[in-house]
Amino acid sequence: MKVSLAKRVSALTPSTTLAITAKAKEMKALGIDVIGLGAGEPDFNTPKHIIQAAYDSLIEGHTKYTPSGGTPQLKEAVISKFKQDQNLTYKPSEIIVTSGAKHALYTLFQVLLDDGDEVIIPTPYWVSYPEQVKLAGGNPVIVEGKQENSYKITPEQLSQSITERTKAVIINSPSNPTGMIYSDEELKAIGQICLERNILIVSDEIYEKLVYDGNTHTSIAEISEELKNQTIIINGVSKSHSMTGWRIGYAAGNETVIKAMTNLASHSTSNPTTTSQYGAVAAYTGDQQPVENMRKSFEERLNIVFEKLNNIPGFDCIKPQGAFYLFPNVKEAARLTGYESVDIFVQALLEEAKVAVIPGSGFGSEDNIRLSYATSLESMEQAIERIHEFVVKKSQ
């Protein structure tokens, strides 16, 4: 049987993250000592009180469908979280709980975009942003966040990128892959342009709890009531509470948009997993000390390995302010070692140094690589030592 696939699927770009991860796993299965630094999830287990709450919900018989937009209890927990953390006030009708933050973004673009509508996406970007926009019939408009501006776009760049088809701009702070945070002043300036040009702000705040060295996270929705009304916040418990596999995210914002997202979800996922929702309630209403303990561990690792990474010949890294990634520019290291591109350099690191990192090309930044420090300090230090030795040897 010959099957013809839909054009929208054929146009998707394969995930470089998954490709490298699959290759590393294949090598490990053959007994090769590969150190993987591609992880996009915390290396801590979900806190015990969350697991217990989920278990209790099963024993109590909470195993049936829930409302498509999430249980009332979880919506209230999310609302309380917003009020406590950011002094933002939302109604239940302005919240949708989804099967992960990725699903929240996907559903948002599906209800927001018509064919040809444009979404401004700063680089470096999380790999799924452009693909999700394309799946909704939209056009990703890529704007370079330059290294000299800490990989963030300027208000001038945003203004120059807006056309009559621009529907939204994505702000990811702290950023995956760079770990950079937009300052209050930067957010105000970007927000003012969006208000003047009636551009929706999609604020991806999934790493908000993971900030270091005295840095703080501000949501653009906190700055003014006008900007709150112009913003859809995307968040979830995956990174903050080490619940990546539980698949609970949410969106908060304009009631009309949230209603449309809920209607769409009712025809796709029916509802987020019931047990996971009970766990997420415990995540937000229970003990937050495990969240802080995890944040401190990441901060400690960052402060130990950052300088070691920057001491590798040809590596140029800005110290991240949040998330759990390092995103060095390694164009010079690739040149020193005789490789034509960073992608080929990454492949050589895996095959010869036995270290798996993610090429920056998957994030729209061909001169960089992404390394995750959501792994043990011992593994991280050993991996950096291997990379250092590889570069020095190849440069001779």
From TrEMBL:
Its EC number is 2.6.1.-. The keyword Transferase applies. It is an enzyme of class 2 (transferase). SUPFAM superfamilies: PLP-dependent transferases. Its cofactor is pyridoxal 5'-phosphate. The keyword Transferase applies. This is Aminotransferase. It comes from Rossellomorea aquimaris.
